Amino acid sequence: MAKIKVTLVKSLIGRKKDHIATANALGLKKIGACREHEGTPQILGMIKKVDYLLKVEEI
């Protein structure tokens, strides 16, 4: 599976609680935080849920 680099580009302040929890589960707590994940269906679903907060790159 492909590796995906996810970066948080917008603030979590004022977002729905489940969106904040999803971003935290991806390992993104602060603006500018980057994490690499495998492209599993579970991770892709989490990314799709909060895609308006993220920048996603395929590695």
Which terms would index this structure?
59 residues, Ribosomal Protein L30, Chain: A, alpha+beta, single chain, 2 helices, 3-stranded antiparallel beta sheet
Q: Would you write up a description of this structure?
A:
- The protein has 59 residues and is α+β, with helices and mostly antiparallel strands.
- The chain has a single domain (3-51), classed as Ribosomal protein L30/L7 (Ribosomal Protein L30, Chain: A, 2-Layer Sandwich), CATH 3.30.1390.20.
- It is 31% helix and 27% strand.
- It has 2 helices and 3 strands.
- The protein has helices spanning 17-25, 41-49; strands at 3-8, 34-38, 54-58.
- The radius of gyration is 10 Å and the shape is globular.
Shape from CA axes?
Answer: globular
Instruction: Tell me the total number of β-strands.
Output: 3
CATH architecture: 2-Layer Sandwich
Which consecutive residue ranges, at least 5 long each, have pLDDT under 50? none
**Class inferred from helices and paired strands:** alpha+beta
Rg estimate, integer Å: 10 Å
The biggest beta sheet is recorded as: 3 strands, antiparallel
Helical stretch count?
2
Residue share in helix: 25-40%
CATH superfamily: Ribosomal protein L30/L7
The CATH topology: Ribosomal Protein L30, Chain: A
Secondary-structure element order, as H and E? Answer: EHEHE
Question: Which strand order does the major sheet show?
Answer: 2-1-3
How many structural domains can be distinguished in the coordinates?
A: 1
Task: Please report the first level of CATH classification, the CATH class.
Answer: Alpha Beta
